[in-house]
Amino acid sequence: MQTPTLAASPAAAGAFVRQQLAETLPPPASTAGAIGWLRKNLFGSLSDAILTLLGITIIVYTVWSILDFTVIRAVATGINGDACRKPGAGACWPYVTSFWRLFVYGYYPPAEQWRANVVFALFIGLLIPLAIPSAPLKLLNVLLFLFGLPIAAGIILPGGWFGLVPVETQLWGGFLVTLIIAVTGIVASFPLGLLLALGRRSNMPAIRFLSVVYIEFWRGVPLITVLFLASNMLPLFLPVGWNVNQLVRALVGVTLFTAAYIAEIIRGGLQAIPRGQYEGAQALGLGYWRMMVLIIMPQAIKIVIPSLVSSFISLFKDTTLVQIVSIYDLLGTIQQSRNSPIWSAPTTSTTGYLVAALIFWTCCFSMSRYSQFIERRLNTGHRR
Amino acid sequence: MADTAFARETAVAAALPAVQMIGVNKWYGDFHVLKEINLEVAKGERIVICGPSGSGKSTMIRCINRLEYHQAGSIVVDGTELTSDLKRIDEVRSEVGMVFQHFNLFPHLTILQNCTLALIWVKKMARKEAEEIAMQYLKKVRIPEQAMKYPGQLSGGQQQRVAIARALCMNPKIMLFDEPTSALDPEMVKEVLDVMISLAESGMTMLCVSHEMGFARQVADRVIFMDAGQIIEQNVPAAFFSNPQHERTKLFLSQILH
Prior knowledge:
The complex is a heterodimer of chains A (384) and B (258).
Chain A: H1 33-41, H2 46-72, H3 82-85, H4 93-105, H5 113-131, H6 138-156, H7 174-200, H8 205-220, H9 223-237, H10 246-271, H11 275-283, H12 288-318, E1 328-329, H13 330-337, H14 348-378
Helix pairs in contact in A: 4-7, 4-13, 5-6, 7-8, 7-10, 7-12, 7-13, 8-10, 9-10, 10-12, 11-12, 12-14, 13-14
Chain B: H1 2-15, E1 19-28, E2 31-41, E3 46-50, H2 57-64, E4 72-77, E5 80-81, H3 86-95, E6 96-99, H4 111-121, H5 127-140, H6 156-169, E7 174-178, H7 186-201, E8 205-209, H8 213-219, E9 222-227, E10 230-235, H9 237-242, H10 247-256
Parallel strand pairs in B: 3-8, 3-9, 6-7, 7-8
Antiparallel strand pairs in B: 1-2, 1-4, 4-5, 9-10
């Protein structure tokens, strides 16, 4: 093959003009496809490569350790802790299977546990359509969830009506109690927090003062103190013969406590609403409550959804603190059972805590994902 | 005799001013924003208020629907005196439409919902009827096709036209405009002014704080010049622009007309 000549004119023959094409260079490293992506993002430089390998090592080690403990070395069956006590044994699953009713219902009598199941079913049956924005009959759904469900649970769980055997709240426990406290706390603290937020921004000095006192008081004391006071001190102040149920005290304590935080979060949202929105609403003749409910609150709450959900997640996890007033929630029942003589083994506690962690994580992660979904849905594009 | 008395009464009713401000004073702390404002606006009158920034012109028209309150003097809007009585204030507000510099549309509601909101919640109208009225006014401002969009999806000029439609939906007797074109890109000013001109031609009582002197020349019955919280000068547009009396007016006009 003939080399193409670049210099066409003979006059250029003596000049320093290249007569031949340069050697073709090898193609550059591929940046397309899986290999290219790996090379570009994970092994771009020496330090990148070291970090990548380190990361992979940590991930593999962690996943392997979990897999090793929960599956490979795990004890799958057994009627007591003997197998789990053997050296090198992993997760003690028969402990979980033998105690799962305790974890879910606490000491609720087994013959009556269907009642708790009915409440669970009602909760899920009302929650799912509530969470789907396009589901019909939203108003009815909300009313049933906010009022129907607590009333139904209040009749079914304690019993004593309609031929239902009474079940003392001391016997309630496990996930049932976790859910009762968390849902009541979230649902009841939200409207209270809303009112407090409005109160703190009110033009009326008395209302503003009371709101500030409330919020600063409850934010100033730890939840454990609140629960302790509710459980041990409250009876001292009540007249003789008066008694408030232990679980109700915890519910009230958690609600009042959370409301203060919700109030501050919502106040943050209110402060972010420009004055023009108030003026626009006022100029149309909307009064204070309509302006707040229709114009200001929807925007303020949308802004603070991430912080609100953080607060709800944190409340969900804080329900575990009710143990210290002898209410046994999910974590409490695990704490109680992990040292039972039949099952005690080096890995029993770890297994129990792993189960608790998984359940809590699932619930909290769902809340977090759902809030992100709602945020995207409510974004009407005005934050350009 | 009775006939003439009746005729006189109706004449009085017709002559009853839309807005009457007598000796109005307002302070922000120590700052005296409005000094002894006396202003009477007849029904159907179109007034353009101009003046340097900080002269109190916005504050003055915001007092008319009590977004700001005055500390001394009296303001009577369509026969209702503005006091701290909340019920009366809401009554006055539903009769006085207001358009703001920054539109103040509700970003979480669609254009249609922005327009129907007050009809449904203040005038207690059925949703369907409210939507018909809203669409009628959206057609008037020439953006019915945007009804289902959110304010954030519209241009500034379109948003301001929606704001005008929203105010008109309440069938107000008086319209207040607080620098309606100041926040707009230049090419959008005309579309908003066109809507305001056709509104003026329909006989609406209008008070506009504006520096659009072309608009003032074309539609205003009276131009008011304010400075330092006082009404310095007022006249019909032709005389106001060609023959200003006051030094400050002359200075102001020379600055904005060149």
